[in-house]
Write a structure and sequence with these properties.
Radius of gyration: 19 Å
Structural class: alpha+beta
Number of strands: 12
Strand order of the largest sheet: 1-2-10-5-12-4-3
Largest sheet: 7 strands, mixed
Helix content: 10-25%
Number of domains: 1
Order of helices and strands: EHEHEHHEEEEHHEEEEE
Mean pLDDT: 90
Number of helices: 6
Strand content: 15-25%
Distance between the termini: 34 Å
């Protein structure tokens, strides 16, 4: 297994259950909630086409900096065309569905993500392939409504950066660890280095697509499946904001 030392190929289209055994496509919100992560499946996708003009919603939200949380009341108060209002109602409906399931969804208009200021040998910002983690059973929900979509990486095409010998040696030097002992491993965990992955040579990341509502597995003690590896999409200055639901 060789790590890719070149720029990864272009992101593939949205991947379906027939393309990768760890992804299962569902056909309703109820099925998305009820389907367990089992038999290696660590990502569930409600594939759908949403009506409305989400670009207009983003435009009417206006300029901003960083990550701006959009509240329900703000969506109600926007002056929108019928297509824009249809999109805003769709956003509010997704928020409502998740809250009824006792989730805590957040709708963000993302103008720019903060990057690591002093990343050391391993970057830990959202542009790095990573998994989410929790101390108890949990999952992550996300949907991109406008702008570039989240990007996934097959587990078989990835390797934890802390398991790559040269990176591990760099981390030991960076953290001032003399040996690969419990204290060093604890430091890797405390700094989230052990949640980040490198793509192997020949890996082909895939897009989560726009409008698709995903539920993905996270790393937690006792999980029956490996966590889903993903990252935020690369963005360039001047691109329009990204509209993302996450919880």
């Amino acid at each position: 297994m060789h790590l890719s030392k070149t720029i990864l190929p272009a992101v593939a289209p949205v991947i379906g259950s027939s393309d990768y055994f760890r992804i299962k496509t569902v056909h309703s919100f109820a099925e998305l909630v009820a389907t367990p992560f089992a038999q290696g499946v660590n990502a569930l996708c409600w594939s759908r086409t949403l009506p409305g003009d989400f670009g207009e919603v983003v435009e009417k939200l206006g300029a901003g900096e960083g990550v701006v949380t959009v509240e329900d009341q703000e969506l109600l108060q926007l002056a929108l065309s019928p297509a824009g209002r249809m999109a805003a109602n769709g956003l509010r409906e997704d928020l409502r569905r998740l809250r009824e399931e006792e989730r805590d969804p957040v709708l963000n208009c993302i103008h720019e993500y903060r990057r690591d200021e002093e990343p050391g040998p391993v970057r830990t910002d959202v542009f790095s392939f990573h998994v989410d983690s929790a101390p108890v059973e949990a999952d992550t929900w996300l949907c991109t409504y406008f702008g570039p979509a989240s990007v996934g990486l097959r587990n078989e095409d990835a390797r934890r950066k802390v398991d790559i010998p040269e990176i591990r040696e760099q981390l030991r030097a960076y953290l001032g660890a003399e040996t690969d002992d419990d204290a060093f491993r604890a430091a890797l965990h405390q700094r989230y280095y052990d949640l980040h992955y490198a793509a192997v040579e020949g890996a082909r990341p895939y897009s989560f697509g726009v409008g698709q509502l995903w539920r993905i597995a996270v790393e937690w003690p006792g999980s029956a499946v490996p966590p889903c590896i993903h990252r935020a999409p690369a963005t360039a200055p001047g691109e329009p904001p990204r509209l993302l639901l996450i919880c």
